[in-house]
Amino acid sequence: MLENNLNPDFRALPAKDRVIVALDCNTGWEAIVMADALVGKASWVKVGMTLYYAEGPAIIQMFKRRGFKVFLDLKFHDIPHQIEGAARSATAAGADMITMHTVGGRAMMEAAQRGAELGAADAGRSVPATLGITVLTSMDAGALAETGVTRPLTDQVAALAELARLSGISGVVASPLEAAMLRETLGPDAFIVTPGVRPTGAELGDQSRVMTPAEAFRAGSSHIVVGRPITQAPDPVAAFDAIAAELEGL
């Protein structure tokens, strides 16, 4: 069973506090304007590569000062020594969730967990959730086959999730279509964070394997990641509120 590194238990949280808003903005000021609008509404924001590489670790603290938890989605993938250092630095900077590619292997994921624990000790804070990327939600079976993986997509997800479990990290990032399978395999305490979530009627964008927010939670997701349906809506606050309302009682 994967260890839940974050307190409180995600199962005790209101559903809206398990919605991560992806601030996939090009500049820090765009992201801060959006975050300021969501203060008191959302609990989590996601910082991806574009924003982090533009603004550096300081962007994490900008969000933390506003009361947000930060999902730092840099998808680490390198030799174990480098990943241990990256996870340590990301944790010390304030990240509450970090990601790595499970295809980097067990030794790499174990190094990421060590780095997260060391970074938490350095900063005097709790250890973040450490998440392994299984198969990107933008990929389908054809795209996976182009990389040389010929087994069925769900088999690939299951095998990589098992590797994550053996590595001792907190959970996985996977499509909501695999959430039910992963919940059964990984147990009740594992983080299963699902991008590829789109409210009914929303455009799919570059996502191939999607569900609605309510469907994802019912399938077993611990957290869902929603970006453009909120951030590119005419009224982002109203869009977040609509998702929160859909999830009430789940």
TrEMBL record:
Biological source species: Adlercreutzia faecimuris
Catalyses which reaction(s): orotidine 5'-phosphate + H(+) = UMP + CO2
Annotated protein name in UniProt: Orotidine 5'-phosphate decarboxylase
Gene Ontology molecular functions: orotidine-5'-phosphate decarboxylase activity
Binding site for substrate: 24, 46, 73-82, 137, 198, 207, 227-228
Keywords assigned by UniProt, alphabetized: Decarboxylase, Lyase, Pyrimidine biosynthesis
InterPro entries per the UniProt record, alphabetical: Aldolase_TIM, OMPdecase, OMPdecase_bac, OMPdeCOase_dom, RibuloseP-bd_barrel
SMART domains reported for this sequence: OMPdecase (SM00934)
EC number(s) reported in the record: 4.1.1.23
Family listed: Belongs to the OMP decarboxylase family. Type 1 subfamily.
Function per UniProt: Catalyzes the decarboxylation of orotidine 5'-monophosphate (OMP) to uridine 5'-monophosphate (UMP).
Orotidine 5'-phosphate decarboxylase domain segment(s): 18-243
Pathway participation: Pyrimidine metabolism; UMP biosynthesis via de novo pathway; UMP from orotate: step 2/2
Quaternary structure annotation from Swiss-Prot or TrEMBL: Homodimer.
Enzyme's top EC category: lyase
Domain of life of the native organism: Bacteria
SUPFAM superfamilies: Ribulose-phoshate binding barrel
Protein's UniProt keywords contain Lyase: yes
Active-site positions on this chain: K75 (proton donor)
One protein family per Pfam: OMPdecase
